[in-house]
Amino acid sequence: MKNNPRGPFSRIRWFCNDGSILAPKSFACVEHGGGRQHGQWSEATLDLQAAGFPIANVLAELGTDDFGEQPQEQRHFRMLLLERFLIAHDNGWIFRQARFYRGALQVEDEEAAARRILQGLIQKPQWREHRFALLFEAVRLLPRDSNDPSVIELRGMAATLAKQDPGFAPLRAKIHGSPDYKDAQRVRDYAASRGRVALRDQYTALAQVIDAVFAAPDLAAMTTDLVTAVGDRPVAIELRHSASALASAKGAGTRLAVGGRLLAMIRNRLTEFGSEELMVQALELAVAMQRQTFIDAVSLSQQWQGRPRNELLRWMRDVIEVAYGTGLLTQFEREQLGRVFASLDTGELSLDHYRKNLNDLARAPEWSRRRLMFYFSLPMEKLSQIEPFAINYLPDRLRASPLLAYSALLDTLSRDAAGLTGYHSELFGTPVALGLHSLNPGLARGTLRTLDDIKNANYLDDSIVIVPETIEDLPPVSGILTAHEGNYLSHVQLLARNLGIPNVVVDESLLPVVQGHRGQRVMLAASPGGIVRLLRDTQSAEETVSKGAEPIAAVINVDIGKLDLQRTQPIATSHLGGGDSGVIVGPKAAQLGELTRYFPQHVSPGLAIPFGGFRQMLEQAATPGGASMFQTLSTRYGQIAAMPDAAQRNEAARAFLARLRNWIMNTPFPPGFEETLRRSMAQTFGVDGSYGVFVRSDTNVEDLPGFTGAGLNLTIPNVVGFDNILHAIRKVWASPFSERAYGWRQALMDRPEHLYAAVLLHKSIPNDISGVMVTADVESGSREFITLVVNEGVAGGVDGQAAETIRVRVRDARVELLNSATALQRRNLLPAGGSQLVPASGAARLLDEESIRQVLAFTARLPDWFGGTSQSAAGGVVADVEFGFVKGRLMLLQIRPFVQDEAATNNRYLQAMDNVLAGLDSIQVDLHQAPEVRP
To answer: HEC profile for 38-107?
Structure first.
């Protein structure tokens, strides 16, 4: 299609307003209510569109109504913008030859339609407020400026040349239909190779006009023109100041500062410009301003030598204003970064403070990347199926923004801090100041692999795995390298933290270096203070590990003596308490009983099938007339453990686990089980079919001091109907015997046959927002803060979604943003059962001040109790709570201790890595001095 002389079209036609499609001739649609002439899609184009690729868009045939609120309409708009990106960056893309096909597109119609679409979108609050990034991209990428006199002039000059030189006609068609800055060189090349000597001056004049049209605009003049257009509106005052400042600006630093303020003002006061036409004009000024700020910021980032630290920080602060004004950052993110810059607005500060604030500023580029990913990741993935270049939109957009310079300046200051500290992270022998961020401390050795590499690997393998993000079902590994920022409190992250498995976020710029060692043995060390080393595994690394830590012993010690397996009847959670955990039910049901006692208005009803019910199931024969399944699994576990060959053990375990799961799914329930459960559910929940329940595994080997087990076993959401609940109970009983759960757990258990799975039936709550909180700062352990991770919908934050992550200071509710919620979808419950994934809103902030107030009121009571913990010890327990909000009301779903591995904190090698961080608060950094770093 790119090389087809007609591109995506088969022929030229008139498309009349009454639906008629006519052959091209003058005034063809006059008698049909008017119309437009352009190319008609080819069969190949129609096939691609039918396959879900809305390409070859003719803007003249589109309107604002085509981009409504339906998911497919939103996807179409984003695909349209990606298509415009491809046209601009891939030499016209599928229109490459069609640009020379006269009549295929009428540029005036296309630009008028683009302006009509923009004006229709900009009048809608959801586009100005929640989709500003998309709106800005639309102004940036859609064709415009058709009425610019210089554009009209160059078209006229091209038409005149084509009449005198017929060979110039294809280039004239290109200039007429879709001009760009490269046309100047095309004209010069044509004149040199094929042009007529007598027309040499005309070719040169046309090329010069094209150069002038696409040269950087006069921003002061553009701003003055906008002042004139808005008249006496209050916004004109600030515009006038900006125009004056731009006209008098003498250097890149001044222009960057003025541009940042202007861009932020335009976004904040967009509606004050009045009409939709003037709002679009304001954003056109913003697009031009962004282009100039990019040039200025990059220039400044290359001239930092000898400049004081505070000047570099001012440039970075101005770039943040640009990023906000162009939609790459939200207001909430801007405020958080502004607070960091304010704390750095001093003459002198401690080195510890300097280092930590630079780490906070390093979040900005990732926030911007995640915002663009929210809008464009799915369209890029789809379009890349037919055009791999589409995946370049995201890196191109970020590299073409001043954030490129921001990252360079941040790298300079971070290397400065590392040099002053005497520490640095290390990547295969190379010092690294930025790009390695520790989520979990720990020390591991293993083979560096990707997720694809370990799909068929044996569990309990010693892999250090590269994952694209924090994922839900990671198999057992020794270490984790996460591309892009992970989820602090996902189930996998909590499990890794509990077991002392290092988890390090790797910046995209460093991934090629890391992936270059794929398949090699490596050592990953992440210190409690955040220093990271990823090195080749050598004999010295082996000695390091052996000297730094004691051998790991079994950490799951099942207290068989306290188990009560005689209780087989379902029990309402309101009758349970913390003391029942590990006795008759698991910690989920027991602690839900505690929550119900203390916060009855914030907990929905629950019903637990105790351990005894599961043991009763296992007491049935494994085979007709044979031993019970409990006896069978006890015997088989012993046989497997005695096998000398690891591969043989793994294969035998896989086969037996499959047999055991199949037995649980197909063996009848014990006599009386179903009828007893039916009665208990009616008493607890009401009429069958009128409610849904989350069916949750609740074992005796989770939330223990040495093992959390977070996310290993199954939760089935919102099951409706008794028969469906029975089937879900079977699946939940079988889930502890999945290969993944077995792999994480088995090597750590002293008596693995004594795993018992209670089942918690918890009435469904249609949360608008849900997530996880920890009653401490997850990174430092400080009890002066709480950490919250939330997403839209139900089951938010636990499965590794890109979640809103905040740290709240308890004494004054001061919020520090760590990450914004940019998960693409939210999960909503369905009345008939199950759930549905629908597009998330992408709201800039999920937890408002009232929500945080409710959370703090809840956590304030936790030090007074924790089910199963003595009163003297309760105050030292950090809680991990799953929660949600329904119509603004806090609802509590689960509570357990937040368990971290002490071995990583006490590891002598990791402690030695942090020795350089001691005393940093006593070293002062003079921000009036230049960074101490080599260029």
So the answer is: EEEECHHHHHHHHCCCCCCCCHHHCCHHHHCCCHHHHHHHHHHHHHHHHHHHCCCHHHCCHHHCCCCCCH
Task: Say if residue 329's pLDDT is above 90.
Answer: yes
In DSSP terms, which residues pair with 14 in a beta bridge?
22, 37
The DSSP string of 398-424 is HHTSTHHHHHHHHHHHHHHHHHHHT--
When mean pLDDT is compared across 103-107, 283-287, 389-393, 676-680, the lowest value belongs to 103-107
Q: Poorest-confidence range of 32-41, 258-267, 298-307?
A: 298-307
| 569 contacts 680 by C-beta, under 8 angstroms | yes
* Percent over 70 (pLDDT), the chain: 89
Which ranges of 326-466 would DSSP assign to H, the alpha helix?
331-343, 351-361, 363-383, 393-399, 403-421, 451-454
How high is the mean pLDDT of the chain? 88
- The two tokens of residue 213 are 């049209």
Least confident of 96-100, 167-171, 445-449, 875-879: 875-879
Q: What pLDDT sits at residue 795?
A: 84
SS (H, E, C) 651-672: HHHHHHHHHHHHHHHHCCCCCC
Residue 935, CB half-sphere, CA atoms under 13 Å: how many? 7
* Residue 932 falls in which region: left (phi positive, over 0), alpha (psi -120 to 50) or beta: beta
Q: Which of 499, 507, 495, 498 is nearest to 532 (CA)?
A: 507
Helix, strand, coil fractions of the chain, as percent rounded to 5: 50, 15, 35
> Are the C-beta atoms of 420 and 925 separated by less than 8 Å?
yes
Between helix 309-325 and helix 252-268 the angle, nearest 10°, is 30
Q: What mean pLDDT do residues 17-31 have?
A: 93
Distance separating the N- and C-terminal Cα atoms of the chain: 47
User: How far apart, in whole angstroms, are the C-alpha atoms of residue 154 and residue 386?
Assistant: 35
- The Cα–Cα gap between 694 and 715 comes to 7
Maximal CA-CA distance, the chain: 105
Q: Which backbone phi and psi does 546 adopt, to 5 degrees? A: -65, -35
For residue 708, the Cα-to-chain-centroid distance in whole angstroms is: 26
pLDDT of the residue at 539: 61
User: Given a cut of 90, is residue 492 above it in pLDDT?
Assistant: no
pLDDT digits (tens, 9 = 90+) for 218-269: 899 999 999 999 999 999 999 999 999 999 998 999 999 999 999 999 999 9
Both structure tokens of 649: 């053990």
Q: Cα–Cα distance between 588 and 696 in angstroms, integer? A: 9
- Copy the structure tokens of residue 175: 């200039």
Identify the bridge partners of residue 760 per DSSP, sorted by sequence position: 608, 696
Nearest to 57 by CA among 104, 120, 2: 104
- Neighbour count for residue 336 (Cβ, 10 Å): 21
When pLDDT is averaged across residues 667-684 and rounded to a whole number, the result is 97
Beta strands in 252-350 (DSSP E): 348-350
Mean pLDDT score, 334-356: 94
Q: How far apart are CA 438 and CA 531, in angstroms?
A: 7
Query: Which element (helix H / strand E) includes 893?
Result: strand 889-897
What pLDDT, on a 0 to 100 scale, did the predictor assign at position 505?
A: 85
Q: What angle do CA 466, 467, 473 make, to 5 degrees?
A: 125
Reported as half-sphere exposure (CB side, CA atoms, 13 A), residue 429 has a value of 4
Which tokens belong to 668? Answer: 């009848």
- Identity (one letter) of the amino acid at 244? S
Q: Between these two residues, 872 and 123, which has the higher pLDDT value?
A: 123
Question: How many Å apart are CA 358 and CA 356, to the nearest integer?
Answer: 5
Query: Which residue in the block uniquely carries the two structure tokens 């929905």?
Result: 604
Other Cβ atoms less than 10 A from the Cβ of 152: the count is: 12
* Amino acid in the structure at residue 468: P
